[in-house]
Each structure stands twice: as C-alpha cells, then as structure tokens.
Amino acid sequence: MTLHAELAAVTDRVIEASKERRKAYLELIRRERENGVDRPRLGCANLAHGYAGTDEQRDQMKDSRRMNVGIVTAYNDMLSAHATYYRYPEQMKVWALQAGITAQVAGGVPAMCDGVTQGYPGMELSLFSRDTIALSTAVALSHGMFEGAALLGICDKIVPGLLMGALRFGHLPMVMIPGGPMRSGLPNKEKARVRELYAEGKASREELLEAEIAAYHGKGTCTFYGTANSNQMMMEAMGLHVPGAAFANPGTKLRQELTREAVQRLAQIGWEGDDYRPVGEVVDERAIVNAAVVLLATGGSTNHLIHLPAIARSAGIVLDWEDFDRLSKVVPLITRVYPNGSADVNMFEDAGGPPFVIRELTKAGLLHNDILTIAEKGFAAYGTKPAIEDDKLVWNELPEKSGDDAVVRTVDNPFWHEGGFRILAGNLGRACIKISAVEEDRWIIEAPARVFSDQQAVQDAFKAGELDRDVVVVVRFQGPKANGMPELHKLTPPLGVLQNRGFRVALVTDGRMSGASGKVPCAIHTSPEAKGGGPLGKVRDGDIIRVDAVAGTLEAKVPAAEWDARELAPAPAEAMGTGREIFALMRHGANEAEQGASALLAESGL
C-alpha cells in the first residue's frame, strides 16, 4: 500500500511540530519504566496495603513477575453506557487468573451524561469533567501496583479523559474496553421531528418525553453517531481496542468474549514478555492521524476537534485544526449515520461498521497500516469482523460490498469526496464548521447578527418570534474560560425550525455544539474566546456577519476603522451553584480550544 501524499505530508507536519515534545515524552516513559515506582520497589508495608483488599489473588500477587492489571472504571448506573460495566471487574478478575495474571480495580472515574445536563447548569462542568477524569485516572495508577491497565469508558469526555491520564503512565500496556450501544429504539429522525414540533409548541411535554424515552430506552451508548460513538471509531483506528469491539451490543456472547480477549491481550503484551506494547508507543503521531482520518470519513463529532488535540498533547504530540482541514480535503465521507443520515450505529455495524471503514481507507492509502496496536495480528485485524462461531471468538474477512450502500460505502463510491470539516478565519477569529450534514446552498450565510450571552436568551427570542428572519445568531462567552464551554445542544431545534421556515440561518459561537449537531451551519469553538478578549466581544446586533465555508472565512462586515475602535462587551459574572464555583481554577487556567481547552495541558507545558 502506498500512502496518500497528503496523508504523508500531514503526518510529517505533525511529527515535525511534535519533535521536541514527543522526544521528551518518550524519554519520560522510558525513565518511568526503568526507574519509576513499581511493585518490586515498594516496601513490604506498602505492598501489604495494596494486597489487603483481596483474598483470592493475594498469593499470586506476591509474585512480582506476574502481571497485575489495574482496572480503571467509569461505572455508574445513571449513565446508560456505563451501567453495562457493573459486572465487568469481577468477570475480568476470573479471566485474568485464567491468563496467569491478576487484576484489581485501581479506581473509579466520574462519568457524567451530557444528555441529562444539556441546557442546565451541570453542563458547565461537562468539559472539565474530562480533566477531572484524567486526574482520577492518574490517581488510580499512581500506586505503582500495576504492570498494565484496562480502561473501562465509552462516552463523550470519559474516553478522552481516561487516555489523557493514562498516557502519563505511557510505559504501561493498556487496552480500552467499550460496552457497546443500546439496541435501536425510536429512529433518530423521528426523535428530531418531535423535538422540533415541541420547539414550535406543536407537541406537548408528555409527547416529547415519550419520544425521548423510546429513543433512549436501555443500557448501552445512545445510538446516534455523536461524540461517544465517534470515540469508539477512533479507538479502533488507533489500535487500542480488541479489533471490532466498538459496536457489539451489551449482554451478548460476542461482547463478553471481546472483553475476555482484552484481558488475554493484556497478559500477552506485558513488560515481562517478549511482546511488550506500552500505550505511550501505541499512541504515536501516526495513530493520532489515523484517528483524525476516520473521524472525517464517518462525519464524526466536532467535539473531537478539542479532544483529539488534548489526547495528542498528553502523548507529546501536537495536532491542530490545520491538520484536520488538510485531511478533510482528501478524506472522502463514506458513512451516513445520524445526524448525517437516517441510520443509527446498529445499522452502521450491520452494514460493515468500523472494520469496513478501516479496510476501505487502508486500501486507499488513507490510514497508516504499520502502527503498533494491541492486536496480535497488527492493524490489518481492524479491517476484519468479529463473530462467535462454534462458541469461539473469530474474525472474518468482510465482503467487498457494503451491507447497505445508504449507510456505508466504498472509497471509490463515497457520499462526498471530502470529509466535511473546515476551518474558518477572519476578523471574528478562527473557528470550525462541520458541513457534512449541511445542504450545499447553506455553506455561505450572510445576514444581520443577533447577539446573546446564553442559550436560554436565544430560546426566549425564538419563542417571541424575534428570530423569524435571515439571521446569524451569535452566542458568546461560552468558551472554556467563560463558563466551561457547555454544549449548546438546545439551540439545535429552534435553529432547525427557523431553517425549515425558509430563513437563512447560522450560528457563530465560542462554545461547543452537540456531537450530534447537524443541518444548520455552525461556526463553533471560535478562538480566541470572548472572555479572553476575543473579537466576538465586538459584535453588535445588526452587524452583517458572513459565514463562508467555501472560502473558509468568518467575518463581521464592519469597516476596519470602526471595528478596531470598538470596545469589547463586558463578560457576564461567573455563575455560582451546581458546583460551578469549584471548577473556577480549571476555567481560569484553560488554554484555547484548538490546543485542547485544558487547564492540565496549559499548566504542564504540553
């Protein structure tokens, strides 16, 4: 296979930008392997404390040559995706003993649900829950009791947070273990239709609630292709899953055997053997580029324009939006899953799923197939499909054709010739836009601005009929420093309604939209953010704003002299309550979205 020239060029750019950081990172993890805290160096009293919580494994643990795996779990039973992890640790301990190793729950990490907190104060903790998860993962692994780790997490901030923390222990072999999506319920398109009817006052709260419960009805991840399921696609392309583990449903024999295999693989890639695969070497520049490619090819979540740079920096790698922009121009869109189509992830899986996408992109030279992975057979295994045959886990070659051309396609017959992410820049700053679900005649919107400082004010104006016109809705002071950068998911239905009414509508914000944002053009993550003195603070009601995804520009059509002379609007007072005040340190220390929107990364110098 010959690499696509632009993929090779972008990878070289990432390697060059990362040279010094990556060198320092690799030196750090090698020092940790050779001289860091581990079980043979712990005192007897320290070891006794570490062994005291277990009876059945204590004798095996005393042999320091026998691998002990730390399980870091995001289990809770309020979050459907993570409720599936309830029995995993006890099962994994049994499988570990069968593999000749031991396992302990090293620690738990928080796992909040954006679906519960959307539009409410708790959402202002969401982004920094990722950094809290990273810190919690570091605490869990800090004891020096483990020679490897199993990371149990699946949803929006949990996977990035687990990896950000785990990569600081990059000398340990690690496997990401997903839980799988819930089975299909109410189709996503119908759910969106009821939401829009409710936004217009044409459906009751009871009707809306019934539709939502029919959509989100059981254990497992939500079935739309938002941030959680985009996480799983990326983990496959980075070689951190057992191949094909992303979308096997919870409670199935296949899911159980994939998890058993994860424990087996940890036993085989430990540092006492001859196949040592530390996670800090698995996650290299090529793996990060692979993650960006599959995100683009599948129309994945815009949240990963923040999360993937943050993950990369945790491994000493510099990835920025220019890399996404360049890749997007050559990576074809070969998947249509809601909100970029009507299918859900179960239909995607049935049509070929991540293995089909990875095989097709690899054939086209659009993925690095020589990366180090946790899989015994290397990266090629991620283009095969797991199944249970004669009560055993096997991997089969996929058919040449897609199982459903309306859901996933071959590279030579894509839905679109590019990936659908673009960068915008101009006198309003630098922003991202996802156009894979936006009709082409709406890639350029030029209209008067209506300026807001919170999403409730937008909803109130919509209900009052004040937005029934061509309009660019500007929602500022929504960045990481201002209020923790909550997703502005509740803006999707009213903006969608305005667009359905025939108005030309766009959103410009320094905040985030949902990972499932779709048909309305949205210039998001605008940097520098308004709270830090960014130019969104200069916009006034009535200014003509041009959002141009064709030319890649984001401009206020205001004479330069007038623009330069304008005062910045004052930032709203910082909110209190729902724990927001104790996250102030993270807000104040956060870097810009393109660098990962993280106080941890800013403070560590990564």
UniProtKB/TrEMBL annotation:
<dbReference type="InterPro" id="IPR042096">
    <property type="entry name" value="Dihydro-acid_dehy_C"/>
</dbReference>
<keyword id="KW-0119">Carbohydrate metabolism</keyword>
<feature type="domain" description="Dihydroxy-acid/6-phosphogluconate dehydratase C-terminal">
    <location>
        <begin position="407"/>
        <end position="597"/>
    </location>
</feature>
<keyword id="KW-0456">Lyase</keyword>
<dbReference type="GO" id="GO:0019521">
    <property type="term" value="P:D-gluconate metabolic process"/>
</dbReference>
<keyword id="KW-0408">Iron</keyword>
<dbReference type="GO" id="GO:0004456">
    <property type="term" value="F:phosphogluconate dehydratase activity"/>
</dbReference>
<comment type="pathway">
    <text>Carbohydrate metabolism; Entner-Doudoroff pathway.</text>
</comment>
<dbReference type="InterPro" id="IPR020558">
    <property type="entry name" value="DiOHA_6PGluconate_deHydtase_CS"/>
</dbReference>
<keyword id="KW-0311">Gluconate utilization</keyword>
<dbReference type="InterPro" id="IPR037237">
    <property type="entry name" value="IlvD/EDD_N"/>
</dbReference>
<comment type="function">
    <text>Catalyzes the dehydration of 6-phospho-D-gluconate to 2-dehydro-3-deoxy-6-phospho-D-gluconate.</text>
</comment>
<dbReference type="GO" id="GO:0051539">
    <property type="term" value="F:4 iron, 4 sulfur cluster binding"/>
</dbReference>
<feature type="domain" description="Dihydroxy-acid/6-phosphogluconate dehydratase N-terminal">
    <location>
        <begin position="67"/>
        <end position="379"/>
    </location>
</feature>
<dbReference type="InterPro" id="IPR004786">
    <property type="entry name" value="6-phosphgluc_deHydtase"/>
</dbReference>
<dbReference type="GO" id="GO:0005829">
    <property type="term" value="C:cytosol"/>
</dbReference>
<comment type="similarity">
    <text>Belongs to the IlvD/Edd family.</text>
</comment>
<dbReference type="Pfam" id="PF00920">
    <property type="entry name" value="ILVD_EDD_N"/>
</dbReference>
<dbReference type="InterPro" id="IPR000581">
    <property type="entry name" value="ILV_EDD_N"/>
</dbReference>
<dbReference type="Pfam" id="PF24877">
    <property type="entry name" value="ILV_EDD_C"/>
</dbReference>
<feature type="binding site">
    <location>
        <position position="222"/>
    </location>
    <ligand>
        <name>[4Fe-4S] cluster</name>
    </ligand>
</feature>
<dbReference type="GO" id="GO:0009255">
    <property type="term" value="P:Entner-Doudoroff pathway through 6-phosphogluconate"/>
</dbReference>
<keyword id="KW-0479">Metal-binding</keyword>
<dbReference type="InterPro" id="IPR056740">
    <property type="entry name" value="ILV_EDD_C"/>
</dbReference>
<feature type="binding site">
    <location>
        <position position="155"/>
    </location>
    <ligand>
        <name>[4Fe-4S] cluster</name>
    </ligand>
</feature>
<dbReference type="GO" id="GO:0046872">
    <property type="term" value="F:metal ion binding"/>
</dbReference>
<keyword id="KW-0004">4Fe-4S</keyword>
<protein>
    <recommendedName>
        <fullName>Phosphogluconate dehydratase</fullName>
        <ecNumber>4.2.1.12</ecNumber>
    </recommendedName>
</protein>
<keyword id="KW-0411">Iron-sulfur</keyword>
